[in-house]
Amino acid sequence: KSAGTLMVRCRRATQKDMQFMAKINSEKKMVTKHGVANQSEFIKPVRPPSVTAKTMKKHSEEGSELIRVRPYPNPEQESETKWMTPDEIERMSYEESHKWIEAGSGSRGVLYVEIIGCDGLPNMDAGVNKRDKTDAFVTAIFEDAIVSTDVIFDCLSPRFMPWTRRAFSFLISHPWSPLLLGVHDYDTGSHNDAIGRVQVDLGNFAPNTEYILHYDLSNTAIVPNRKNMGTITIRLCLEYHDTTLQLHRERLSFPNRFRVNVQDKKDFRVAKFVADGGKDISKYSIETITMHVEELATCLNIVFYMYNALMFVYEWRGHIPLRFCWPYGKCGEVELLVPLHSIIAFVGAVLLVERPTLAPAMFTASLGWIMLAMLELKTSRPSPWARPPTYIETVKTLVTGEFTPQTITAQESCLADEIRVGADKKKRDEQVKYLMDMYNDKMKEWEVMTEFMGENLDLENIDTNTSKGFSTLPGRSILYPWQVWFAQLCQVRRTIESILTWNSYTPAFCITSASLGLGVLFLFIPWGFLTLWSARFVAWIVLGPWRKMMKNEMTLWEQRRITKEAKKKKNEAFEKEMEALQIQKEGALKMAALKKNIFGCFIVSCPCPMVKVDRYHDAPLPKSSAKPIAEENSKSSRINKKEKTRLQGQE
Fold first, then answer.
1. Lower CB density within 10 Å: C or N end of the chain?
2. What are phi and psi of 64, to 5 degrees?
3. Which of 202, 262, 261, 192 is nearest to 234 (CA)?
């Protein structure tokens, strides 16, 4: 008797299929022995045996406090590093790491990252046992690689020692790829508790410079009212294999979107939180709709910003310092603030009035001028961590191919920057208050007027709370399309704001350069001549009677034949386009299936770094520092002498 039937669908491999498999075997090297599936220790943090029952603190014979070194002492000096003072632990955590993990599949350079420690973490394991505290570990995602540190158990300010798993060297495929870091509390249950995350943007970091970076940890970057969950300290260094023009061209190109695969749902939750904060705002929610509406309402800040810029130009406020010696009197050296932007606006307006044919050149050049003015405002910040490179510095780097190493001291210009930010916030709040007072006055006038006309409305009972007002409206079928539309508007708003404020430096630089270049080019185009002869061509040739005289009368059969041939060519072109798309789709599906089989069935998509569309952006704290590294003492030359483990990338 038959036990059932087996149905198989198969086809003969085409030339495209064989090329795809040859590419996988020769270039990608995605064999099981190099995959994450057989090296799970690089993905899953492994908590050492619990020592909560043992003493964590004691006193030395001299009376100083000693703390048990976690997660374990240095195997080579176990007796000396089992118990140490807090100062010794702090000093030891900044020493060079003993072993490194190399991850990724890029070829442009190497990003060296060492996780030094965290401070002020919340207690995620608060319970009956007072000794039970957060078991912290850090997960890092860079392009197509995901790695984790060791677990520091029962500590709210953990320090990762040089002999632990904390040092990673990522192979770079694109210079603007972000480094994503997330801190979790290790649990043996179904999932690890998320604590905080940070996105480290590498665009403004110079190569051959060693950075000690301190960042605030937050629970999200896309929803309002995010919470501070402590701080994280890392040591970072960039090295490029070459600094030729090709590298800088790649800095101005759009990178690919990277994805990483993990094995189980517990790892997926960790990776998802590190990549995007773990907040899914694509699902239908009244709270999400309210959040989008409130964010769109903040566009008023951009209006205030533009108003201040216009008043700055209109009132001829000086901003470029000009120093010269005054020969008369006892004044000596005199400093004068030149209103350069007002002069440019005045000269441009006069030229435009006198020569209207310069309108195209003036329009395109004004876009570049506005972008340069915004960059000037950004670079005027006292804090070096808030200043992007100037336009001249970027052009010089593109031409010469040389980077300038940075030297930044801790707390550099911290007080001056706080005063500057506080003054800007105070001014913005005063403008908001002025606008709201004006609005309230108009509402009172309207209320008095309606009462006088006998049409009084009970304004006190009108619910102005957005979140409560939405609750009376219909459900998902009506509101969800609005949620999607609001989300798209928020994306557009963030993109425009990110470019105007030069947070997305590469698109802003490209737009500025293109605007200035087109403005200069349009100066040499005879717009008056082109406009005149274009109008003559339309009037005399297109609209004249010549079309009727030149037209050959075609029979109905000829018209049908020509129409049929044109339709046939259109269909053939469409079929070729669909065939190319089908091959591309099949290749993507095959690659995704292979990655699932080798690296894990859970896929996490990493953010595209070219345009920053997060609601909040992370910046180093003022206590961060930077110092240049001599070429003979480069990071790679020192690490080559250390123990190194290779982890194959997933691309």
1. N
2. -80, 150
3. 202
Cis peptide before 71 (omega within 30 of 0): yes
CA distance to 13, 67, 585, per residue, from 10 (Å)? 9, 64, 18
Which residue, 519, 561, 588, is CA-closest to 369? 519
Structural element, H or E, at residue 171: strand 167-172
> What do you get for the CA distance between the two ends of the chain, in Å?
49
Which token pair is 300?
Answer: 């008023």
Please state the three-class secondary structure of 128-155 as a single string.
CCCCCCCCEEEEEEECCEEEECCCECCC
Across 270-388, the runs of DSSP E, i.e. the strands, are 320-326, 332-338
Closest CA to 170 of 263, 269, 237: 237
Residue 548's SS3 state is helix
Q: Which residue has the higher pLDDT, 468 or 184?
A: 184
CA distance 214 to 198: 10
Residue the block writes with tokens 């990673």: 168
State how far the Cα of 226 lies from the Cα of 616, in Å rounded to an integer.
Answer: 9
CB 134 within 8 A of CB 123: yes
Number of H helices, E strands in the chain: 18, 18
d(CA 385, CA 200): 12
> Which residues in 399-432 are b (16+ Cβ under 10 Å) and which e?
eeeebeebebeeebbeeebeebeeeeeeeeeebe
pLDDT grade, residue 300 (50/70/90)? low
Q: What is the pLDDT of residues 427-436, one digit of tens each?
A: 777 776 776 7
Cα→Cα distances 211→100, 327, 417, 644, Å: 18, 47, 20, 22
DSSP 8-state assignment for residue 84: E
Read off the amino acid at residue 459: L
Percent of the chain with pLDDT over 70: 80
Which region holds residue 574: left if phi is over 0, alpha if psi is between -120 and 50, else beta?
alpha
pLDDT, residue 507, reads 86
**Mean pLDDT within 311-327:** 77
What share of the chain in percent tops pLDDT 90?
17
Answer positive or negative: Cα dihedral of 527, 530, 533, 537.
Answer: negative
Condensed to tens digits (0 to 9), the pLDDT of residues 515-557 reads: 999 999 998 988 888 888 888 888 887 777 766 665 555 566 7
Contact 590, 598 (CB under 8 A): no
Q: What is the pLDDT of residues 31-79, one digit of tens each?
A: 333 333 334 434 567 665 655 445 678 887 787 888 888 888 998 888 8
CA dist list (Å): 642 to 100, 163, 194, 636: 7, 11, 32, 10
What tokens were used for 199?
Answer: 């996105």
pLDDT of residue 277 exceeding 60, the answer is yes
Pick from 296, 293, 280, 299: which is nearest to 483 by CA? 293
Q: Is the Cα torsion angle 142, 93, 74, 59 positive or negative in sign?
A: negative
Bridge partners, residue 603, by sequence: 261
Strand-pairing partners, residue 58, are: 66
| DSSP percent split of the chain into helix, strand, coil, nearest 5 | 45, 20, 35
